[in-house]
Amino acid sequence: MSFTPNIQAFCCHYTSQQTIAEGKEGLKRDGMPENVTLNRLVCGGKLQVSTLLKAFEDGADGVYFVGCPPDECHNVKGSQRAAKKVAAVRQALIELSVEPERVEMFHLERGFHPEFVKAAQVMNKRITALGPCPFKGDSK
Amino acid sequence: MIIAERKPVNEILDMVKDAKKILVLGCRGCVTVCSAGGEREVEILASLIRLGMKKQGKKIQVTEGTLVRQCDREYIDGIDQWKGKYDSIVSMACGVGVNFIANLRPTTIVYPAVNTSFFGGSAEQGVWTEQCAGCGDCVLHLTGGLCPISRCAKSLFNGPCGGSVDGRCEINPETECVWQLIHDRLGRINNQEAMNTIAPIRDWRTAGHGGPRKTLRDDLTL
């Protein structure tokens, strides 16, 4: 049975600026998987552990964050903080015996880069292979 | 402040495995400051419990709440606002809060979500260190303000012991030898001769060795 994962991408204002400007059609042309939903934050420093967990509660099969390179955050340490939050969720998934690869952190240069789309494709491929998230009601 | 740390999720899930409705209850006191059991941590734990139970194929209703403090009678009364929404409480307060709920709500089931660790302070962001043992008979005026009970692995009163090497503790080399620190500090404040004073054998009854302790202030009781 075919499976299209629900993937929630969180990204900071700066790394997603040009991506957002591309618009839905433009992103589709660039190869952005349509099942990846972008959630934009002002900065990685605003990311909360609960935001990522909530995404899983709301039915995500995979969740990731795209932030600036660790030492190039516009707000100095935002993407470093985001990486810590992602690591905390990864640890929580391990505790709950769920594949930690369902959550990921990407550090990318600002602006629109093929890497932004590539990150979405990597996650889409990975989560498709993993199958539905065990947090979904019908699976044990 | 009292430093605490959240228990492993699976330990908490095991506590609530038969519960149908729980109240995850935070405290805005010490555990908020040390990021163990404040509003934010309540949100995270509630989410983890929902996800964990869902993974096990179980249904649970999780209500989130936070009290000003869980170590005061009048604030415990605030639990009434969630009446009917829980069959047990998962308290994210320190052990004092859990005890207060158990004392004041004789039929309410209450579980601890954190391990209460020690009295400490924030050494740097995300790092807390033990600074006081609450022994009930403070000697900091004799030791330059540095506590030999909580900060010496052997709680020595007449230190350092022979295991102090290069200012480090033999029990754990990552720990500074507090007696070395006391020695250096007493020197800096021109009170080094205090090191020559032999501390007498200590009466530990004030430290809880005489049973649970109680403080009574006649000027405050009604």
UniProtKB/TrEMBL annotation, chain A:
The keyword Iron-sulfur appears for this protein: yes
A Pfam family per the record: FlpD
Keywords: Iron, Iron-sulfur, Metal-binding, Oxidoreductase
Superkingdom of origin: Bacteria
InterPro entries from the UniProt entry: MvhD/FlpD
Molecular function as annotated in GO: iron-sulfur cluster binding; metal ion binding; oxidoreductase activity
Protein name, UniProt field: Hydrogenase iron-sulfur subunit
TrEMBL record, chain B:
Listed PANTHER family: 5,10-METHYLENETETRAHYDROFOLATE REDUCTASE, METHYLENE-TETRAHYDROFOLATE REDUCTASE C-TERMINAL DOMAIN-CONTAINING PROTEIN
Record InterPro entries: DUF5981
Domain Methylene-tetrahydrofolate reductase C-terminal-like: from-to ranges: 111-205
Pfam families per UniProt: DUF5981
Domain of life: Bacteria
Protein name from the UniProt record: Methylenetetrahydrofolate reductase C-terminal domain-containing protein
Organism: Candidatus Desulfobia pelagia
